[in-house]
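Help wanted!
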Amino acid sequence: MRTRDTNKEELVKQKAIEMLVKLGIEGFGMNRLAKESGVSVATLYIYYTDKEDLIKKIGIEIGQNFFNEMVKDFSPTMPFKEGLRKQWENRARFALKYPSNVACWELLSHSSYRDYILHESLSDFKIIMSDFLKNALDKKELLPISTEVFWCVAYGPLYSLLRFENEGKNFGGGPFKLTQKTTDEAFELVLKALTL
Amino acid sequence: MENHLENILVFATNIKTEVDKQKVSNLLDDHSGIHQWNIDQEDIDCVLRIVSNTLSEVQIIDLIYSQDFECAVLE
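Answered by r_m:
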């Protein structure tokens, strides 16, 4: 009986994520992945039925990891300010800890795999976040705005700051480091915009 | 940590097109010893993947040969 080595499988997954980010979905292939991960093609096919299966599984896993990080110490019944701050902390931690996973997620969420992966991995998260917003509206802590506008205002500034942090550079090309002070400054402005 | 899976057999074939695939589909679908199968036709080796607890590699190769396709164990 063939066996599967979970360490090796983890290595294959990480390599696949890196390659997807670097080469895109079209450029990515099982043969090349096998070569770069130091496993045989046959071994890859023990783990996954085909390229599509591999991409779907990787997307779902990233989504589930994201979900697990997002709900850490978070509850949809939290006061709005506290809950949003927790979301900022969780999102920033995930983005800084797993930059390749985030880049891969970005790529897949603009591909034909998007709906399948979102459905399989983030359905529960969507419900939790909807509840959070509904509670905030009911408690009159949040302005009534569309979900898209909410998302842009609530998280746009954070993701922009995280991009500066990832690049390590500010507008002038000088060094940039995301500090608590900068984060708090942006967060307070976001709160001002969103709350009554 | 290692966990045991069902027996998975993988082969390089020349089952390249949809028409080719149709030719082996019924045979593989109807075979009581085959739990699940698929062919990755995007791959250069048109990898045939079979999940079976009873069949050997040689038996699968014979089966594919009988439909006039090439089939070799993928290393």
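OP: Thanks! One thing I noticed: The first helix of chain B runs from residue 18 to 30.
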